[in-house]
Amino acid sequence: MKTAIVTSDTSENHLTGDGHPEQPKRVRSIINVLKKKKDLIWEKPSIVPEKILKLTHTEDYIQNLKNSFPQKGIKFLDGDTVVSPGSKEAVFDAAGSTIRAIDGIENKRFKNAFCVVRPPGHHAEKNKAMGFCCLSNAGIATNYLIDKYNYKKIACVDFDVHWGNGNYNVLYDNKRSLYISTHQYPFYPGGGTENDKGKYNNSLNIPLPAGTNSEQYFNAYDRVIDRLIDYKPDFLIFSAGFDAHKNDPLAQFELSSEDFYEITKRTLKATNKFTNGKVLSVLEGGYDLNALAESAFNHVKALSETE
Fold first, then answer.
1. What is the mean pLDDT of residues 109-137?
2. How far apart (Å, rounded) are the C-alpha atoms in residues 273 and 305?
3. Which tens digit of pLDDT belongs to each residue from 8-24?
4. Mean pLDDT, the chain, as a whole number?
5. What SS3 class is residue 145?
């Protein structure tokens, strides 16, 4: 079976204003390079069931979010989270891409999937938008796997350079999930220390200093692998941010594009025997367009090679 790319034109209608790093060209840059791979399946998002939204975010927040999109111009939901008239479809399609991906994997239409969508999701908490993010796409995916398919042990590995406070918040008291994050510390959004373990010791945070290079990163990543092997997940989610790249303008890690192939490959090697290769990846950060496209291509290359 093949790897699917789930994406939507609505991603490009989410306008954030001139000079904003979370821009429509991010998705286009990835799609342009992935089109060169001829062994991929292309899919469109599904609709997120209302029940799953309410399992992930508070009812008040969902209603306020739906009412927050402007008729014209742009609007700030927080200091750096911007929405425009076209953002509503993009936000809900980004979350809906995980629903289509999961159903396709479960129905054996494809073996795994990468959701090339924006806005990202890993900073969105149960009751607030934050850090370019409106909905926790990974959290929605986790709750859908539990509610629809009765999964018991879902691992979410977040290799974005920023700590996924939203993923942590949404999954904090979810007994059926394990959230793991490697990230630059101290750095936006704050938190993500080794003391942030979740309510049921269901989180592992690995804070790393600015300037972390490939060797140092992979030495630390061994802890991710060990925890995954110990946990034995039956489904794997990647919160796939590519802003740990050395060329990224918003952070200070020193990873190469090829390192994202290695991150993906090592994670799959450790988990495939437990997950039977069932993997969903959803795009988070990455703000240098060339680095983003190269890194995402390497990530998908590793996904498509897995048995």
1. 98
2. 15
3. 999 999 999 999 999 99
4. 98
5. helix
At residue 83, the pLDDT reads 98
What does the block give as tokens for 81? 């989270």
Task: Compute CA distances 18 → 75, 110, 129, 249, 283, whole Å.
Answer: 13, 38, 21, 16, 22
Work out the burial of residue 201: count CB atoms within 10 Å of its CB; fewer than 13 is exposed, 13-18 middle, 19 or more buried. exposed
User: Tens digits of per-residue pLDDT, 85-101?
Assistant: 999 999 999 999 999 99
* Domain enclosing residue 168, as ranges: 3-305
Q: What is the CA radius of gyration of the chain?
A: 17
Q: Is 14 a catalytic residue?
A: no
Calculate mean pLDDT across residues 23-38: 98
Output the pLDDT for position 307: 73
Query: Looking at 57, 123, 162, 299, which residue is catalytic?
Result: 123
Q: Phi-psi category of 266—alpha, beta or left, where left has phi over 0 and alpha has psi -120 to 50?
A: alpha
What is the CATH classification number for the domain harbouring 235? Answer: 3.40.800.20
Instruction: Please state the domain count of the chain.
Output: 1
Predicted TM-score (pTM) of this structure:
0.98
How far, in Å, CA of 108 to CA of 166, rounded?
30
State how far the Cα of 253 lies from the Cα of 53, in Å rounded to an integer.
Answer: 34
Enter the tokens of residue 94: 């980004």
